[in-house]
Amino acid sequence: MNGFFNVVSTSPFNYDAAKQYVRDIQWGSFWISMGYVVVIFTIKKVMENRKPFNIKLPLNLWNLWLAVFSIAGSYVTSKALFSEIYNKSLTDSYCKNGDFFVGTPGLWTFLFCCSKIAELGDTIFIVLRKRPLMFLHWYHHVATLNYGFLSYVDGTAFNTWIVWLNFSVHAIMYSYYCLASVGVKIPAVIARSITFLQITQFAITHLILFHVGYLALVGTPCDTTPLAYWYCLLMEISYLVLFGNFFYQSYIKGGGKKFNKEKAVTKDVSQKVE
């Protein structure tokens, strides 16, 4: 942890020191992600014959800090990304390492990478509260964490867009979770819109990756490595498939199970009032 605090407390932000720190803990983060899978399924098994934990306050605080963190990250990286586009070009914003990875946005990009370890805590709340644990949920945590560390060490330029998109979508998503966890009734159409935003995020990333691949084929190199590129492409394809299926199952098939559940609750409440 001393290395982490040294990186975040150094002013101005030292990008090379941050990359070295991530390189030093890269294998450790991989084993954390593997241990995470073992832990969540062990807890899930232990909880089979137990009552769900009432951990409302910790859940509220958890969603609150992630919402605030994501909002701040979205604000900082939005300014940095659009500055790259304005001062250089749209293509350079995802093909060439620039000012996005240094200074204040560089610090937030580093924090983004490290936060993927902290976000594993989402699943602990799910299994302790005996909520359904979907493959999509734990798989995307593992895949994103390992991609983040791999690509940060490799200096992958298109992480400008990946970091900005993820921060921005998470700002909305965790704000929604925060409101829902404190008891605010939010229409299912909002949840559908957030899932649609997630799918849009992956679609935009696909367009960028396809263009980066095309540029490589015609001899215009971009700042990435083959390993980081192919890992990201395969990861994003899997996300598009999994989130697309989730969207279909939850909001389209048979009228959408989330919409049907909302209607059932509304009908039950109205009958009680009558």
From TrEMBL:
Catalytic activity: a very-long-chain acyl-CoA + malonyl-CoA + H(+) = a very-long-chain 3-oxoacyl-CoA + CO2 + CoA
Key words, A-Z: Fatty acid biosynthesis, Fatty acid metabolism, Lipid biosynthesis, Lipid metabolism, Membrane, Transferase, Transmembrane, Transmembrane helix
Any matching Pfam family: ELO
GO molecular function per UniProt: fatty acid elongase activity
Source organism, top-level taxon: Eukaryota
A GO CC annotation given for this chain: endoplasmic reticulum membrane
GO biological process: fatty acid elongation, monounsaturated fatty acid; fatty acid elongation, polyunsaturated fatty acid; fatty acid elongation, saturated fatty acid; sphingolipid biosynthetic process; very long-chain fatty acid biosynthetic process
Membrane spanning stretches: 25-43, 64-86, 106-128, 135-155, 161-184, 196-216, 228-248
InterPro entries membership: ELO_CS, ELO_fam
Alphabetized PANTHER family for the sequence: ELONGATION OF LONG CHAIN FATTY ACIDS PROTEIN 6, FATTY ACID ACYL TRANSFERASE-RELATED
Protein name: Elongation of very long chain fatty acids protein
Organism: Acrobeloides nanus
